[in-house]
Amino acid sequence: MDASEPFTVDTVLATVDGSEESATAVEYAVAVADRYDASVHALFVLGRGVVRGLDAGTVDEIDVAETTQEFFDDVRRIADDADVDLATSVDDGFSQTRKTRHPGNVVLDTADAVDADFIVLPREPVTGTEAEVLEQAAEYVLSYASQPVLSV
């Protein structure tokens, strides 16, 4: 970026996993979007245990969809309060058939797909909780993203 060019943002990618930390990341993403008159794309990344359970049939797809939608409902309220446009998507953070499929790749691939100019994601402590997958992605995204990244 040339120092004489103003910094612009059209799309902020907020990466979430349903944790409280990712809800905080959404608040930051919405604030950035509000500041730059941008939109937010919230990406919900499913954890390894959920993906394996869905593949094995031990986790109910409807329960996962309902939980994800409840989280997105909260995200929508945050975006609506700031009058920020919001799009959402869900993706598997892991694959049993593709070794290169992990949360960091999913975040960067989605950032490219939605043409994100800015990425916000939580940098969570390692807790061992299956639902909180983004601590595995933060360092990777910070290292390899071509967009500015805010890790909260």
Automatic annotation (TrEMBL):
Record CDD domains: USP-like
Positions of the UspA domain: 10-151
One Pfam family this sequence matches: Usp
Stored InterPro entries: Rossmann-like_a/b/a_fold (IPR014729), UspA (IPR006016)
Entries under PANTHER family matching the protein: STRESS RESPONSE PROTEIN NHAX, UNIVERSAL STRESS PROTEIN UP12
Family: Belongs to the universal stress protein A family.
Entry protein name: Universal stress protein
Lineage: Archaea, Methanobacteriati, Methanobacteriota, Stenosarchaea group, Halobacteria
